[in-house]
Amino acid sequence: MIQQEKAQPNRNLGLELARVTEAAAIAAARYMGMGSMEKGDRAAAGAMNTFLKTVDMNGIVVIGEGEQEETPFFYTGEHIGNGEGPELDVAVGPVEGVALLADGRPNAISAIAVAERDSMWNPGHSLYMNKIVVGREAREAIDIRLSPTQNLHRIAEALGKHVNELTVFVLDKNRHASLVEEIRQAGARISLHTDGDVVGALMAAVPGACIDALMGIGDSTKGVMAAAAVKALGGGMQGMRAPQREDEKRQLKKDGVKVREVLQLDTLVRSDNIFFAATGITPSPFLEGVSFGRDSSLTTHSIVIRSRTGTLRFIEGIHQVEGRHSSDKKNSKTPVEVAFEVVK
Prior knowledge:
Blueprint: H1 11-29, H2 37-52, E1 58-63, H3 66-69, E2 79-80, E3 87-96, H4 98-103, E4 109-116, E5 128-134, H5 148-159, E6 167-171, H6 177-186, E7 189-193, H7 197-205, E8 213-219, H8 220-233, E9 236-241, H9 246-255, E10 262-264, H10 265-268, E11 274-280, E12 291-292, E13 297-306, E14 311-320, H11 335-343
């Protein structure tokens, strides 16, 4: 009996994933600046889940949000896709930056990453990770075991810049007070953000995005999603577990985990066959948010990356929505229904 080869992700998958994030972003955008982190996230998750059912893949959620956000979707180990096609690990972020969406701040995105089955790192009980991300030109220069100052000088040399010409993306958190001070003392410029280290990693890795590096401690699950994008772009990234809570420290000690282990990019995502897609929800210099036209149109801006070819696409989608301005509440559609309708 001839054994059939496993299906491989093909180039069509990237555009399908872009439609998934478009649907999630459109559903979430209705709640921009409305003050609720839950409503926008639930709408995005519902739209993403609905559209993923139509995508040809046999996916398993490795990085989800069901447990963290208490949503009915995307629990770790959950099967997604229509069950046909390639077997994949999937990292989902219906809304990356829920607080940004709730407050109407820049850089909220919807994102998804897929790679071949059993290739994405499972953070386990590691809730926080220290990260450093750079683009292709500086990927051999970074060493997370060195000080931020040393890394900045190495990055500057790799890029042919002076340190004072570098811009570093850092989350504006109390835990980063000493990091911010050291970066300033080294002479580099800082771009502070309340949330959004996935988009920060993208900005550091995408050529010409005006961010030279991301540094600091963020969510471990977002680190895996960021790693998929960075690897697909050919950038550089290293991580190291950085437990912030006493219960996390105790659990990692109980697990026998080496906290000081350097997590290389190939550890975070072993596969070389990766797709990443993201769509802007709120307005941003990197990805414009969902725009509601005066007519019946919606405009989205997305990024799609494929590792095998190194292709990076920015996609503007103009979607027609029939009866979007209808005042008939009985016939009005939910954000999830609208999102599915416009991208199906």
